[in-house]
Amino acid sequence: MYDDQPQAEAPTQNSGGVPVYKRMLDLFEAEGIKTLFGIPDPNFVHLFLEAEKRGWTVVSSHHEAATGHMAAAAARITGKPAVCIATLGPGMANAMPAVQCAKVENDPVIFIGGQRARVTERRVRRGRIQFVRQEPMIEDSVKFSSSIEYADQVDEIVREAIRVCMSGTPGPAYIEYPAHVILEEVPNTPILPPSRYRLVNAGADGDRIAEAAKIIMEAKNPILLVGHGVHTSKAGAAVKELADLMQCPVIQTSGGTSFIEGLEDRTFPYGFSEVSIDAVVESDCCVALATELGEPSHYGRWRHWIDNEANRKWIYVQQDATAIGVNRPIDVPLVGDVRGVVPQLSRALKELGGRKANEKLSAYIQREAAQLVEVAEDAASKPDGTESLMHTSQFVSEATKAFPADGIMIRDGGATVVFQWTYSQCKPHDVIWNQNYGHIGTGLPYATGAMLADRAQSGQSRPGMLLTSDSSFLFHIGELEVAVRENLPLVCVVGVDFQWGLEVGVYKRTFGHGTSETGTHWSDKVRFDKIAEGFGAAGEFITKAEDMGPAIKRAYERGGVTVIHVPIDPKANSEEMPNYSEFRTWYAEGTQ
């Protein structure tokens, strides 16, 4: 089967039609998809060759899990569904971590799995090569699962996959692509635009919009709670207009950590900023946009939300109607796509004249700016690598000071990410990290997928920075070759303590110092800068905080991929995570 496919040699049956693989590409192109991720096998070589001829960016990774993570990042950076393929059998098995991750992270990735021809699959036989029934393995982890059994199903199945994965709470879909349909043809009928076959940018009920606008206008201290979906839907400009009309603070959820252009100074990370806590406590109206109101936000009803709860009105913009009122009661639900609802709300506020800014907003802005300076000074007071190993706060502070203003920030790791929430000195407009599932190791695939999809869509190659730790970086280090092959302007800054930092901290807090920390330490012989050179990238070894900025500057000036190996203090990394008590409240079992 693998070397000689009889169907690949068979003449087409309908000379006036179009092969299934071309039709699939036509359907995806109608959605604005221009990037294809996967490792091609015989089921997909026709698809890949045709996509390349059309000018698509075709990305072949080194592991199907990384391929799926790349596609997830592509969906986030473009605001469109993404397409990822996997070889039949072991390829789909390898992709399963990415499928599960996309489900929990709400990423609209369409996974297409190759499969043996049905004439082989449905035989009662043993010892079939590279075969397992895949739909039972995957259907519980996706929003939609189906198989193209007959060529004339291709339109309906692809459209249904896109329709379902983009509706309600977004998520992945699975399409099985058996070998017997690859070269069959279908009529070359006109391709429908998305608005003709699915609901696009749905608005909310007009009476509810008016009710919400009235509450906002009457509020003394309203806030905007901005979730992950604001950024993945590319609704930033619309939210900027709404924030200007509300004249209020913007509170980031843990998933919504990108900064909207023009709102950087009034945007405060929930729980990790003193100002964010005060703004939440004092608020009498919360407009929650495209967020699940999940554990990291304390469901919007406990911890920082308890004070003033009786006086606070909730307006919830949510595409998934079944999510309304689940995690907390809602006063005014606005059911619809944030891309459609937010402009409606802005128009209603304009008609009412918009809100006037009060003194609290400017005070919040000044306090947050002062806190940013304070945390930088605090980081600078910690060991800088001159006399002892660098403190993680220095690692984060100096790296983020050198982040390019127009860049894409990718986060990965355990303890180092916790440090980033407090000590980051930049306000990126695009941040990608695994905020719901906690799936470390996604950083390098996320960086590659996001940067390639962004380049395919915009025609420009924006700089990327992956700020990560050694344990996480090792997961998919082979994808460095993809970044090098594609000549991405990517700088990977790796904090190295040769341990699982969060887990070491758990041992210490559970059993005390001096207890065996089984399974958390590994070889101290690894040099990531040297590994990078082996892949054809540049490598730098930095021990002092003062050398971090110049090394990053050199990397971007040089172009291509650079990996910077930065030794950090393992004791500080596991014991001195800032605001760790706040982070732990996300997992406060039995209290939420």
Automatic annotation (TrEMBL):
Family annotation (Gene3D superfamilies): 3.40.50.970, TPP-binding domain
Domain (Thiamine pyrophosphate enzyme central): residue spans on this chain: 209-345
InterPro entries on file: DHS-like_NAD/FAD-binding_dom (IPR029035), THDP-binding (IPR029061), Thiamin_PyroP_enz_cen_dom (IPR012000), Thiamin_PyroP_enz_TPP-bd_dom (IPR012001), TPP_enz (IPR045229), TPP_enzyme_TPP-bd (IPR011766)
Phylogenetic classification of the source organism: Bacteria, Pseudomonadati, Pseudomonadota, Alphaproteobacteria, Sphingomonadales
Keyword Thylakoid: no
Protein name: Thiamine pyrophosphate-binding protein
Domain called Thiamine pyrophosphate enzyme TPP-binding: residue spans: 416-566
Family annotation (SUPFAM superfamilies): DHS-like NAD/FAD-binding domain, Thiamin diphosphate-binding fold (THDP-binding)
Similarity comment text for this entry: Belongs to the TPP enzyme family.
